[in-house]
């Protein structure tokens, strides 16, 4: 027993040493004034080991302390990622993973389906946009962050995950069992719209490492079909990989800045457009679900005058996260910078106002925003 106790404290001392060192660095000249806080940390750990009813490992205590440090930032975008969640996030950035094929977001504190992807378990089981996910397995999702939710829905191919859903118009919640498959979801969909003027339509669902290349390929396909103008749909696009948004913006801007990245420690950087561009009339659709990288793209188009924004005000996420790998497969997603539009507008918590405001009701049978975009493009073509 005594040997086990010494082993516990030995492992815990090693694990906490680095954390205490970092805390001391953070406190700087205020160490003397804050020594009681460090003492409380040690006292809490001692009480847990000596008085807590259940056994707990030093590693679990340290992980909890790390989570607490990150949560103390009161930043919804800075998150400690355990090994499984970090792995799933990397898969999401790459655009290929084992899962059920559904894009989710948070609406009114509940996990909500933004879009089920075609030919995936979610689509085949009839899951719809707007469905509220009340539980993943036996885990309630209220107040759950999307990273945790994604990690729970993903897993080895062939395994089963059960969702408890609430759907508008359906009185009671219902359960759906889905068998995970290898999901490689394209993030860009495009086509020519009906009519003789050959207007193109491209929707981007999110930004992964592959999105920039997908967009370039889709533009080439539509141009070969004689595309005369383009509607770019960024509605309900939650963002994603920064470099993809920059690569796409470069397709529509001929010169000048795309986005300014403003770091606290002074390593500011501006991404500039290259000369080649898509020299066609452009309308970009946005709404309150257009966030982060979507706003970088929309802000670049608006400030450069490269196109017209139609829809409603965007979400207002004007900060950039960097993902850092940690030991034991874990990771840290940390807000490291803010971004400014080409004209140096800070849109964080403000959003980007469209040039033409068009509301879209949930019960509207006609896509009013898309119809307005098409009308504007035709007016530009016939000037």
From TrEMBL:
Give the coiled coil ranges: none
Q: Broadest EC class?
A: hydrolase
An annotated GO BP: signal transduction
InterPro entries for this protein: ClpP/crotonase-like_dom_sf, CtpA/B_N, PDZ, PDZ_6, PDZ_sf, Peptidase_S41A, Tail-specific_protease
> Could you tell me which residue ranges the PDZ domain spans?
86-154
Alphabetized PANTHER family for the sequence: CARBOXY-TERMINAL PROCESSING PROTEASE CTPA, TAIL-SPECIFIC PROTEASE
Keyword Protease in the entry? The reply is yes
Q: What is this protein called?
A: C-terminal processing peptidase-3, Serine peptidase, MEROPS family S41A
Family membership: Belongs to the peptidase S41A family.
Transmembrane regions listed in the UniProt entry: none
Q: In terms of domain of life, where is this protein from?
A: Bacteria
- Cited Pfam families: CtpB_N-like, PDZ_6, Peptidase_S41
Its keywords, alphabetically, are: Hydrolase, Protease, Serine protease
Q: Which NCBIfam families does this chain map to?
A: prc
